[in-house]
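WARN retry 2 of 3 for item q-0093 after timeout on previous attempt; input resubmitted unchanged.
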Amino acid sequence: MDYGAKLDAEIEARRDDLIALTQDLIRIPTLNPPGDCYLEICEYLRDRLATKGFDVQLVRAEGAIGDSDKYPRWNVVARREGAHSGECVHFNSHTDVVEVGRDWTYDPFGGELDDGKIYGRGACDMKGGLATSIIAAEVFVDLFPEFSGAVEISGTADEESGGYGGVAYLAEKGFFAPERVQHVIIPEPLNKDRICLGHRGVWWAELETFGEIAHGSMPFLGDCAVRHMGAVVHEMEQSLFPALAEKRTDMPVVPEGAKQSTLNINSMHGGMEEPEADYTGYPSACVPDSCRMVLDRRFLIEEDIKDVQAEIQSVLDKVKAERDTFRYDLREMHRVLPTMTEKDAPVVTTVAEAIQDIIGAPAEYVVSPGTYDQKHIDRIGKLKNCIAYGPGILDLAHKPDEYIGVEDMVDSAKVMARSLVKILLGHDEITVGEPKI
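OK item q-0093 returned
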């Protein structure tokens, strides 16, 4: 029996449902920060998946970073057991979206369909991917009710701010334990013909330089912390940034510029705190005695985290040797080690075969320049058989007029559904049930 043609036809038949589901998800404004509407979107997903026979849990990440009574971190995990024992395939998508920003020409939470594209904040990153995985899973369980194993779908919080109230919390509670889940696909937007094997590492730190406050008309009586920070930035420009540009990786990182080590100065503030928005006066005349800078260092699988830290320390030591009154404090904010799944891992080879079937070309293997929730599944859940695969163009993430292409979602749904067949059926003689539309 040609199960592939049956799958494809059924997914095509549910194109309108896929569009409507994506639009519904976009219209729930799950902005993070602060963490709006998490419960609302989890309840929506619960109600949808429960009608398809999934057992659904709502899990609040109580006590996790970001969780509060005002902004509780809610997650949803849905599981559909097959008729026979077997392995579990888990589709994990984050439900949060970043701030809207400026220069939109579409309603950021309108979910407007225009010329085959659905527009809105989170359309690409990653509510389109979430909707795609749901349609793929629903089609699979409807057509092949006698499958072996289990299918899981999760919608999780806070990926855009580290995932600690989402996948990290669930991993700590055993939801991604290898004895419970064996294959994980994260539908991040990395193009429908690509398999993302992992990501670079990240080390975030806050550097504060200190000075001495004095009257701004007599700065010689104080010590300007901003000038000290300026000396740090100058030394970074002279020595650190050129050194980082020379570091290259064998990881298939995209885009090309991310194949090197990078450092971003995320923010900087010196002097008095910013006044309230309705304050109309001038600042007072003071020499700033504090300046803070947040560093976002992305590093390669070939680098050791201790060397990453030592490079920053070397810059500070050099500035200290040249400035008698230089004082500072360096505080690590968080770290994530690089991760990369092997190309011969079961989930990789399975999805690659499905991409070849649907796209008609070999899958491209890539690594993400930034981290995503695979880090928690790997490091906390101890599950290595994990990839990112989903519809959408990565470059559109976090941009104005973000969109997801309907055709890309349809093709990706076919890839996901075929991957379920390959893993959870594993043989050619299969029983096709009546679609439950």
